[in-house]
C-alpha cells in the first residue's frame, strides 16, 4: 500500500438477512466485520479506523468504541458514529475516504448489524413507533413512519398524475429480482394484483409496498489498494434538508436531487453511463422518487419504466440486485450497507447476479422522511 | 378517550402558549429582516439567515398539502380510531402544520381549502382540519 494508490472499498460482506433469533447486535457486527475483513484479505490488526451507526436493539453512547472493543481492535486512530438514519452507510463511506485521504488513518472498518426482528421487545416496538416523529408537532396525531412516507408518495403521485396502483410495479420488480437469488427473505415472484390487494397500511401504501423488518448486518473495509483491486469511490454527495416531515420545505428540487447531482458531477459520470443502481427502498414509492430526482428516470416515468422491465436484471439499468430491502429484508441501521455491499460486488464482478459489466454503479441511501440523503458512484474495480 | 395533545416546551414557548391558551391561537413566525414567514419555529430564518422574528396570528386560508389515511394504527389507543386521516396543511405561505382530519380525505382533496381548529387534547393542544364551509369556498 502506498499513498499514491487509490482509496476505496477493499472488502464487502453481509451476514444472512432474515430471521436469526439468538444472534444479538454486537455478534452481528462481529460476523459482518469478520466476513468483510476476510473478503479484503487484510490483517485485521491493520484496522485503525472504525465507523458504526449505533444500534436499535442495543445502543451505546460510544457505539463505535464499544464495537471496536468487542472485536478486539486496540489500535484505532479514528472512531466515528454516523447517525444520519438510512443515509448513514453511503455517508460513512465518504467519511472513511476523507479520513484516509487526510492521513487520519489507513484502514477503516464500516460495520453495522442489528437483530431488529428477533430482538424486538414491546418497549422497543413503542420506541420504534416514535422514531423520526417530532414529539410536539407530529406524535400527538398518531402518525407512523409508513404514514409519513405515504404522505410523500401521495404528493409524488399527484405531481405527476399517476395512479396509486402503479406503485405495485416496484415491488413486483423487486420480487422478480430476488427470485434469482438463493437466500432472499422474500424470493417468490408476486403479481401487481397481489400487491394492490395486500393489507392497506397508510394510503396509498400497502403491506407489500413496505420493506419487512429483518435481522442482519453488513460491513465494508475501506483503504488504499492497487488500481483494479479496489472499488473506487468515483463520486459522492450528501444533502440534508430537514429531519421531521413537518419541517420538510417541500421545495421543487429535493435534497435527493442535490445529493445525487453532486455525486454525478464529482464522478464525471452521467446516468446513461451506469451499469446498475442500488436505491434504498424502505418503501416502494421511494425508489421511483429517487430514480427521478437523480435524473436517472424522466420525471413521472419511473413507475411505467418499472412496469416495462427497464430496471430488471436484463433491462436497461438493473436496480437493487440483492432484492433490496423490499425483498431482501430491512434490518434497520445496517439497511444501507446491504445496498453498498451489493454495489461493491457488482463493480468487482463478484455479485451473485453480476450485471454491471465494468460500468459505474450508483448507490443512493436515504434517511428521515426522504430528508437525509447520501449518494455514491462506485467504479474502477475490475 | 381524549386524543393526545402536544406538551409545551421552551423551544417555541410563545407558539405553544398561544396555541394552548384560552383562545387557542395559531401563530406564524415572521422574520424581522426579510419579512417571510415560517412554521414550525426555527431559531434562524432559513431564507435570509436573520435571527430576529415576531409571532403573528395566522389569518389567511389554509390548504391541504398532502395526507394519508392510516389503516394500521401504531397503538391500541389509535387502533380504536382507525381509520383516521393525517395531513400536512399550509396555513400561510411557508408555514405548515401536521393535523388530524375530521374526515377521511381522498386524492381529489389535495390542494383543497381547509379550516384548522385548535382542540384540547390530553396533555396539551392539538390541531384538527375540517373541510369548513364547502360550498362557500368552492363557488
Ligand atoms: Zn428572513
Descriptive overview:
The complex is a heterodimer of chains A (382) and B (139). Chain A is of the alpha/beta class and 382 residues long. Chain A has a domain at 7-119 and 214-224: Thiolase/Chalcone synthase (Peroxisomal Thiolase, Chain A, domain 1, 3-Layer(aba) Sandwich), CATH 3.40.47. Chain A has twelve helices and eleven strands. In chain A, the strands form two sheets. Chain A has a nine-stranded mixed beta sheet with strand order 3-2-4-7-1-8-11-10-9, with helices on both faces. Chain A has a two-stranded antiparallel sheet with strand order 5-6. In chain A, strand 2 (49-52), helix 2 (63-71) and strand 3 (78-81) form a beta-alpha-beta unit. The model of chain A has no long low-confidence stretch (mean pLDDT 96). With 139 residues, chain B is mainly β. Chain B has one domain (10-131). Chain B has three helices and eight strands, in the order αββββαββββα. Chain B has helices spanning 13-20, 76-79, 134-138; strands at residues 27-31, 37-38, 53-57, 62-70, 84-92, 95-101, 113-121, 124-130. A five-stranded mixed barrel of chain B has the order 4-5-6-8-7. In chain B, a hairpin with a 2-residue loop joins strand 5 (84-92) and strand 6 (95-101). Residues 135-139 of chain B have low confidence and may be disordered.
